[in-house]
Amino acid sequence: MPGTRVTAAVASVIAVIAASGLATSAADAVPNSGVDPSPSAITSLWAWGNPIDPAADARGLGQPEFQPAALAAFAQSHGLHSVYLSVPWAANQGAFATWLPEAVDALHAVGVSVSALGGDSAWAAQPGLAAQWVTDALATADFDAVQFDVEPWAGVPNPDLATIVPQYTAMLAAAAAVAHGTPIGADLPWWLAAQPVGGGTAFDAILPHLQSVAIVAFSDHATGADGIIALASPAADAAAASGIPFTIGVETDTPAVAGGAQYTFGDDGADALETQTALVRDGFAATDGYRGVTVEHLLSWRTLLGD
User: Fold this and answer.
1) Residues 25-36: what's their mean pLDDT?
2) Which of 85, 92, 152, 213 has the fewest CB atoms lying closer than 10 Å?
3) Residue 2 falls within a domain, yes or no?
4) pTM
């Protein structure tokens, strides 16, 4: 999930959070009985990849971890509730038209919901592309939801959110029109909740077009001014106020991929991931709509676990 940070904007927002005292507000929350007390706080993951032989399909990556049985076994053994499964363009063509329904059925068989995951930054300005992708994905497999990872702000030091956000919401509207009631979710970086757009924030403007949101708050620790809880709290509060279920996204890829060691558990180990995400669960357990922690991503998490 590249491009989720905008460096200059992020630094200034973290400073504001530290000064305002938001760093401790969520951490002091008392868990309620409505939150799953399972040993791990991790409830879902982003699964980027596929097992398709690249010799048979140019989109193939040949990753055996994505075979239906392997996916289902991993999800079940780690107590996952949902998987965001990457879906390519023209999913209803070639080998993907066979693999995707088999993978979704295998995950359903072990009680895991599955969202069609995909996106391209160009889709925000070309909503018809997003609509076509959704149409093909939902025609291919029995997905429970759609999860957009569209980042038109990626790699832009000072993105023009006044222009980007209306484009983004138009894209979501176009997708909803062809989804025919299938829930629409999105991956959104925490800092959108600190960027003014119109009479509110960029995050506020996008929320009404979603049925769920994964709040991307990449950090390798839960507490402190630059910790996961402080970063994600304004977005989580906004989601709760809007009645939108949310998860908190964390990273397990290498520091080189993540943009620095401070953004990932990739160099910290599986125990650190579990310990810190448990603190994240404690911090958000009393927040309406909290649905756990989402891990980025299947292959890097497996590497961290030594699988």
Assistant:
1) 38
2) 92
3) no
4) 0.89
